[in-house]
Write a structure and sequence with these properties.
Blueprint (H helix, E strand, L loop, with lengths): L10 E6 L3 H13 L3 E7 L3 H11 L3 E3 L2 H5 L6 E4 L6 H10 L3 E5 L6 H13 L4 E4 L6 H12 L5 E11 L19 H17 L5 E9 L2 E14 L3 E8 L1 E12 L2 E6 L11 E5 L2 E5 L6 H15 L7 H20 L3 E2 L1
Parallel strand pairs: 1-2, 1-4, 2-3, 4-5, 5-6, 7-10
Antiparallel strand pairs: 7-11, 8-9, 8-15, 9-10, 11-12, 12-13, 13-14
Helix pairs in contact: 1-8, 4-5, 5-9, 7-9
Amino acid sequence: MSGNAQHRKTVRWGILGCAQIAVNAIIPALQAAREAEIAAVASRDEAKARSVAERFGIPKAYGGYEALLADPEIDAVYIPLPNHLHLEWTVKAAEAGKHVLCEKPFAMNAAEAEAMAEACGRNGVKLAEAFMYRYHPRYDLVRDIVRSGEIGDIRGVQVAFTFQIEDVGVEGNIRMDGKLGGGAIYDVGCYTVSGARLVLGAEPEAATAIATYLETDPDVDMMVSGLLEFPGGIGLSFQCGMSAELRNSLQIAGTKGRIDIPEAYVPSPESADFFVVTKGERRKVVVPVVDAYELQVAEFSRCILEDAPTRFDPADAVRNMAVLDAVRASAKERRRVSL
């Protein structure tokens, strides 16, 4: 294992790329987590790497991803690169003996995801998909309530995750380039699928979806609506998109009540509370305000230090990509796709 991390108290992390998610969320999370330390950052633009390193007091800055992977003092890497590069750099990191936390969506398809999982398994390193919301304590509370029977038997799940891409900027945005893995399904639809699989504890059997596409790039889905069929006649109805007003919500409907989760995947810094409605009564479930990114990197680091299994293994990421493959195929071909 790189750096023999199991015999130390912290995991030494490197960052492959200076994406906004790395700068705004992951680097601060690594600096806050006692199980981790941020040791290096790399960019194809060395000046950018140096700028980020100086801003955060990171000891090393590399002008290339290969140089960081060659550093024997790095135990694990976080990969926030464009989606089409996840396979290449996860495999290279694994071959360099580095554990990998890879940003969502895990890959461009399930076949790539399987290749990533195989490479990490073959090289004895841990691999996880960076769905930070799953580490937030409110999802443990949600699943506890579902299991308790308070809302009865689940009858359906409804999810919406949409935003206006003009609000975040279109020029140079990789979300608008199909060859780089752009589109709404990859960017926000992955959350809607992952969230339903998490709260239901099951895998869908079929997908049906419709979509609108970017006129200048038919591989970029702008708005997608669909249905996932889960066992027992339970359906997930979802909308994901980059051309609709901001929404980020999840609702679980049961025979006796429902659970409403506002800001389901990116909670407000002020509140992560959600609501349970039964017999017309609305109960607030108070949830601690925490940094899900910090919890994510801290837990992954502990798994490395203790050589313990990750809570969400690579096989889970492969299954999520298989569902996204089915949704994309259904939207393109306008047909129901079995899983």
